[in-house]
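Record format v2
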Amino acid sequence: MTLFTRIIFILVMSLWAYPLTGWAITDPLNAQVRFSLPESVETVGQAFVYFLAPSQYHITTLPPASPKAKEGLRATLPFPLPIQKVLTVKEALLAVTPEAWVLVIDRENKLISLTPSQPQQGQE
Amino acid sequence: MTHVWWWLFIMGWLTMGCSHTPTFADPIHSITDHPRIRYESLVSSEPVVDSCPPLAPTDPVAQAPTNAEPDVLVSEATAARPLPFTKPFFVAFQKEEWHIPPDHANWSAVLQQLDPLGHYLVVGYSHDGGEQEQAILAQRRAEYIASLMHQAGFPLNQIHRMASWSPQRETFAPPLGAQIFSLGPEATEIRLGVADTFEPPS
């Protein structure tokens, strides 16, 4: 095998391997899912549990998460939902989060919580 | 022979183009600056302490620098705050049994009072002298209740399990069954049992 063919061979193999490395998902929240929820899911918390089940993320309501987080997770699902659309898990979580709430993500510890979008008066 | 390599190169190139999406495809989109997403730590960080705090309030006069050996300060220690005690939920088991029907009325009543987002400690008991293989029974009772909770939608990482057994009855524990303790956000210890409920027969 001549030097030229070796170079060509390496080049071709590199080009083959590149897409595989590009497809690697480093954050499970960026994985794509088709938006669909079982009929038993009625609250935001249940939808979070459903979408986060395959990932390593967990929901937390413990401090320093907002003390109002439980309230947000118990809220009913907003309407309309992007049924059958292909979204990332993060987008799906946003879709089931009511407008008045903000999604809080701790990527390092793989935790997720909710907090009110505007701090209520009298609350620090 | 050289033209063979050219053909291999061309065939490889064509196959690559057909079998993949474009080589330099856009990466999967990620939302990093969405107004309704906030990235922050959700784990409380322990404050950094450079040195051990004093055990008792110190008198500034007594702290004047001297060459003498420091006296040992004898003072009343800070009284430990009593932990708020939440009565645990109790699930009864029959003797030598570690299964209950999932639709058991007692279990259904307990399940309805549990918060799906809370952390719980399930303790299986076997302190009845008449039971065989008490350690295994106690463990299986805890595991079984944990599995029922998991089936009901509780994440496994929020269910902690323990077993308690002994050849004789104990005042701090029910003779058989399982208890479910609700763990507070800052719980570091629990109080097992309710003595007045599980007083052994005299």
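The two ends of chain B are 100 Å apart (CA to CA).
The domain at 90-183 of chain B is CATH 3.30.1330.60 (60s Ribosomal Protein L30; Chain: A;).
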